[in-house]
Amino acid sequence: MHEELVLHSDVKTQHLAGDLLHYSYYRVEEHIQREKKYAKLAAEKDKAMRKSPSAVLSYLKAAFRFLKMYILKLGFLHGKNGYQLCLISAKGKIWRHQFLVDSIGS
């Protein structure tokens, strides 16, 4: 699911001075759409692997994702934005379950 940069052996690499800022999204709506996209891809993979959907497990995974990001990774230090980021990422686990259930039903 994640892209990877593969360089030919003759390519020379070097460190850049300064910071390189990378933003995956700029608005909350973009984050939600990205999370739903990856949840759908994960659900398709789950279906191909014949995984059974479990609502209880998906909610446990969502709660763990939120707590991990909000507490362990210090998301709470970023105020409202940190809370939203953690919440949307946690919802991705529930969306994954919903997409899997929908795909099995159809």
Describe the protein:
It is a single chain. With 106 residues, this protein is mainly α. It has one domain. The chain contains three helices and no strands. α1 (28-48) packs parallel to α3 (79-105) and α2 packs antiparallel against α3 (79-105). The radius of gyration is 17 Å and the shape is extended. It starts with 27 loop residues before the first helix and ends with a helix. The model has no long low-confidence stretch (mean pLDDT 93).
Total E-strand runs: 0
Tell me the number of structural domains. Answer: 1
Overall geometry comes to extended
Main beta sheet strand tally, sense and closure: none
Q: How much helicity do the residues have? A: 55-70%
Written as H for each helix and E for each strand, in order along the chain, the element string is HHH
- Oligomerization status of the protein chains: single chain
Q: How many distinct helices?
A: 3
Structural class given helices, strands, pairing?
mainly alpha
Share in β-strands: under 5%
Low-confidence stretches: none
Q: Please, what is the average pLDDT?
A: 93
Using only C-alpha atoms, the radius of gyration works out to: 17 Å
State the separation between the terminal residues, measured CA to CA. 24 Å
Note the topology.
Layout: H1 28-48, H2 55-72, H3 79-105
Helix pairs in contact: 1-3, 2-3
Brief digest:
With 106 residues, the protein is mostly helical. The chain is built from three helices and no strands. The longest helix has 27 residues.
Record keyword descriptors for this entry:
106 residues, mainly alpha, 3 helices, 62% helix, extended
